[in-house]
Amino acid sequence: MIILIGSIKGGVGKSTLATNIAAYLAVKNKDVILVDSDRQSTSSNWYYDRSNTDLPIVHGAQKYDNISTTLKDFNRRYEYVVVDCQGRDSVELRTGLIAVDICIIPCKPSQADLDTIHSMQEMLKMASSINQGLKSYCVLTICPNNPAVTEIADSIDFLKKYDDMQLLSTLIYDRKNYRDALALGRGVVEMDNDKAKHEIESLMKELAHGC
Ligand SMILES: Nc1ncnc2c1ncn2[C@@H]1O[C@H](COP(=O)(O)OP(=O)(O)OP(=O)(O)O)[C@@H](O)[C@H]1O
Ligand SMILES: [Mg+2]
Asked: N or C: which end of the chain has fewer CB within 10 A?
């Protein structure tokens, strides 16, 4: 099973989600490799930090340019392949989409981020014409905690209109715990904040139901 976290927008929480999904699967005793296709190396730094701990193993690899064949090869050797992409329209994102089972598109509840979803949908349509089993999900990330802010509800209304990508009902809120976990080579399921942990568990349950 190959799960790619992709978006043409930077800073939406792709690496945070990729590392948390990888850690969640490792905690569940799954054989998982995290592939970093972004030269920024956020995910690579994370699994390097993790490799110096006693935490459940997440294998790691860096692969750039055309990643399609490598992902298919990893898929034969590992139970789960989690792919982190850079935040723009890239060769890695386009070639990755041809090989993957699931694409998760993180999106912040703000107009600038929502504006990129249409282009992302066009890319997914093209990928689906080749990779017919591709399933795409959108998830709202780094959501503001202030209940007075209506951006979350407005974003849900906006994203529901896109049939090609299913909007997950799990919301990933802005929590310091996500930043701390990223810096420690951990997933939030391995930290002491129940709220963040429940968000990742809820997201993974939704994905499991959709598969
Ligand atoms: N849910 C969250 N709560 C708090 N901070 C978060 C959350 N998700 C991500 N962040 C922080 O926001 C910043 C951007 O996150 P991240 O690196 O995961 O985004 P990205 O989409 O991978 O960015 P890039 O496009 O640059 O690769 C990081 O400092 C990260 O720690
Ligand atoms: Mg990143």
From this structure: C
